[in-house]
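Q: What structure does this chain adopt?
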Amino acid sequence: MSAARASGILLHPTSLPAPVGDDGQARDAGSGDFGAAARRFIDWLASAGQSLWQVLPFNPVGPGFSPYTSSAAHAGNPLLIAPDELAALGLLDGAMLANEYARLQCAPDRIEVESCQRLRMRLLHLAAGAFFAEAARFAALHEQFRAWCAAERAWLDDYSLFMALRGRHGEHCPWAQWPAALAAREPAALRAARAGLSAECDFWCFVQWSFARQWQALRDYGAARGIRIVGDLPIYVSFDSVEVWAARDLFDPMTRAGRAWWPVCRPIISAPKASDGATHCIAGGATLNRATRGGRRACTRHCATPTSCASITSARLSPTGKSMPRRSPRSKDAGSRGRVSNSSPRSRAALDWRAARCR
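A:
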């Protein structure tokens, strides 16, 4: 089998350079995102004769701002949503954004992660507030939003409720420490929680819709210029994640310190159809074409992902491209790894099923 050669550059969107004001400070929300800087980078790749843009995982980041302890395998990182793109839709005021960027006082070659996160989440709440408060004004967007939510319901309903409950009980309180009825997902408790947290659930649906909308637009922009965006995905699923909370019977709890559960009954990352933004689908113990280090196996075909996933680095490229990015500190739990149990009939059947899905 022959394949065309291709080359590209690894650069996570959070490290994209920012516009610089007269005071030498960045004029953005503190980190790179799916906005204008990402499109300029695609233009530069095309002009340099490249065809690939490799990125890091796009999952919501967890402790230590690591995507490998993410709260959701299917969701995208809210910190990659470009506020300027929301302003272009009329959901945020442009003058207000400029003032917020100036107040952030962020150096153009560094990311103040906590300040950036606070600002971006506040802007997302403002945008969501305008979106839901002025439904008539944004009627066309609401139609798109409802259609997208219906299409993604398989994971979105559990995710939005999970995030709303995390907001109520505290980000650092794992679901296993929630009230017993919620931790056990008793139907009456879930109905009561969804009714009492409907506004919060709507917010998280809006966030993921905004992520998906901007991510698809960026992929389309790259495809039109011959640039494919490729990357990797976390193999392991965090214990404190919506997937484990919603489907504990599909995970093997026999892991080191019980901090990360390994999926043995279904692939967490699904691949509905091929697209220009394809990435490798990692299929953890599935018997496929090629073994990788550590006894894991990787799918050798390209699989499109519904949302790819993300980390925040603590340094950025300067406008001249000369700064040296540094990795963000990782939590102690970020390196914990689970182990597949291949001895049980259920595990073997699950791995066979996963392999079939990736062929």
